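Subject: design request, 422 residues
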């Protein structure tokens, strides 16, 4: 005897005498609730003029260290993108995105690397309040500036601009928190936003206790402790789009390098970050375009710098004030749907440091020059060659290292992926 399998819907109809509606008329269709799924691979081959063991010990004097290669903080190991000479599997990025109901959407971005899995972003968004208002909650990239919101695979170069990574680290402002944005009912695009964030940035912001809780080097603060605000505007003139913005972030700062092998230290104080960005996109025809993009960042760190010994005991705690700023400017030419090329200039313009009111002399001409060319086989696959000359790094002896780097990068994706914002 042939068995007949009945769906749960049909079974219920037979038992209760309900009418069985055709599939197209049912109110629930599981296929409509399957999220868009994409997987992105980013890999590279690097040829750098300094050895891997040396790269992790280089620093941008008075600003940051660990910007190249791999380095350790205690029991954890951090690797930048394109960290090692030779082959690098930078990450696999899994993206899930879907509408939840008529009021909410949800997005998740998960990074898989050889060191583990990280939730890069996981947030809900809603426009249900109306009046041009949007809210977001979860973990997300802040809308501070222009580049910060963008994911690595959308960057025009294989690495982050020098001023961004030096001030904010390779992840930028990526936080747990809440966001509200309001788009004004104007004939041109005008948006204002405000964010309340936990405040756990690796390079500039932080709120955790440093040292023993009972006898701390620097006592922490309960979050949230980071506040971000910005205004952005855009205007079209013929085939040219102008986009500009002003941003500001303020929060507690706790920078813990007490477990560093060399010169262990920590910082506790207040941090402020100012940003201005400007983008011009000019369409030459259906495919050709020129894009000029520049951002200026200025930061102020005011607090106490703790010098530590190998057992994390405080051996000095001078007051320190850092006023530092820098910018990057890049020009990208899109020739057709396959070929793009571009150049970028990075620099730290100011590096003023005062310890107990006395000025600390710092080197100047902290700049970097980069050029790239890339080929797209389709919108899902991109291959890039990039060369850079970095004059900003110094070794442990205080000598400048002029670093030449060639990167061959492959970025390939599969699946449905939402369009990226301009």
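Subject: RE: design request

Done. Sequence follows.
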């Amino acid at each position: 005897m042939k068995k007949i399998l009945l769906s749960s819907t049909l079974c219920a109809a037979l038992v209760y005498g309900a009418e069985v509606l055709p599939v197209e008329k049912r109110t629930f269709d599981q296929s409509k609730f399957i999220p868009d799924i994409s997987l992105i691979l980013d890999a590279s081959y690097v040829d750098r003029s300094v050895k891997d063991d040396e790269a992790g010990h280089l620093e941008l004097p008075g600003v940051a260290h660990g910007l190249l290669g791999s380095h350790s903080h205690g029991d954890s190991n951090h690797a930048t993108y394109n960290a090692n000479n030779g082959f690098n599997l930078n990450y696999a990025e899994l993206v899930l995105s879907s509408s939840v109901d008529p009021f909410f959407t949800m997005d998740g971005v998960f990074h898989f690397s050889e060191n583990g899995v990280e939730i890069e972003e996981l947030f809900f968004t809603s426009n249900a309040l109306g009046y041009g208002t949007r809210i977001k909650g979860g973990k997300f990239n802040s809308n501070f500036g222009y580049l910060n919101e963008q994911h690595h695979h959308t960057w025009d170069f294989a690495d982050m601009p020098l001023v961004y990574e030096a001030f904010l680290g390779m992840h930028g402002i990526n936080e747990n928190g809440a966001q509200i944005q309001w788009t004004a009912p104007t004939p041109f695009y005008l948006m204002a936003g405000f964010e309340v964030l936990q405040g756990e940035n690796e390079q500039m912001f932080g709120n955790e206790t440093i040292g023993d809780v009972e006898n701390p080097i620097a006592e922490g603060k309960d979050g949230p402790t980071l506040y971000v605000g910005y205004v952005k505007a855009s205007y079209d003139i013929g085939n040219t789009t102008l986009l500009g913005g002003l941003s500001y972030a303020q929060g507690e700062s706790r920078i813990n390098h007490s477990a560093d092998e060399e010169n262990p230290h920590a910082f506790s104080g207040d941090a402020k970050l100012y940003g201005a960005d400007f983008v011009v996109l000019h369409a030459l025809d259906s495919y050709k375009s020129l894009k000029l993009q520049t951002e200026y960042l200025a930061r102020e760190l005011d607090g106490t710098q703790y010098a530590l010994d190998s057992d994390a005991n405080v051996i000095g705690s001078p007051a320190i004030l850092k006023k530092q700023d820098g910018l990057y400017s890049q020009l990208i030419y899109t020739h057709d749907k396959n070929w793009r090329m571009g150049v970028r200039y990075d620099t730290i313009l100011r590096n003023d440091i005062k310890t107990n009111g006395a000025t600390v002399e710092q080197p100047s001409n902290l700049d970097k020059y980069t050029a790239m060319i890339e080929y797209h086989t389709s919108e899902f696959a991109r291959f890039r060659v990039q060369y850079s000359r970095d004059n900003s790094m110094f070794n442990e002896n205080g000598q400048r290292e002029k670093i030449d780097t060639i990167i061959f990068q492959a970025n390939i994706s599969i699946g449905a992926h939402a369009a990226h914002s301009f």
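The longest strand covers residues 289-308.
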